Amino acid sequence: MSSAARGSNAWMRAGLILLLAAGLGLGCDALRDDRVFFRRAAPAVRPVAPAPGP
Amino acid sequence: MTTRSEFVVRVLLGVLLLWAGGAKLAEPKLFFFTLLEYRLPLPDGALRFVAVTLPWLELLCGAFLVTDTWAGSVRALTAGLCAVFIVATAQAWLRGLEISCGCFGALESGEWGTPAVALARAVLLGAAAVWLLARLGRKKSSA
Description:
- By secondary structure, chain A is mainly alpha-helical.
- Chain A has one helix and no strands.
- Chain B has helices at residues 3-26, 28-37, 44-67, 71-94, 115-142.
């Protein structure tokens, strides 16, 4: 194998490790209750009508 | 330096990365709050992405270092990872931020977590990673 092909293989493997880390990280975060990246939207607060005046 | 010393440095670095990654993975929210304390000029979404993916990257690099899998790629990635740690801890130290580095999750406390100590540790680990990478290059060129 030429040194150029070996070099491109090394970059591909490094990219694969980065992709794997991103996939595992995002996947596990999506499955957790206390999510960090896929945080749940804040619960909607129903507007309260002003109390009728006297 | 002998092959035995390379083995010892590689396994030590790998085990440290496994420890750091595992500790962060146990409490991702705590790691995210620690990242916020670094006051890095990054958007919230990017910091959240780093908080969930960095522990896995450390775990993968640690496991691959220990087993000596994809040696060139993993050693280069580890050196890059250490360079990021050096930049992050150096800016915290230079700005005088009084924070706990968060390198080993909640397991780290007191003096061991200060930015100055974390910077020294990151420089040491970075030097080890670069040395391992250089050893591999020398081995390949002599083969």
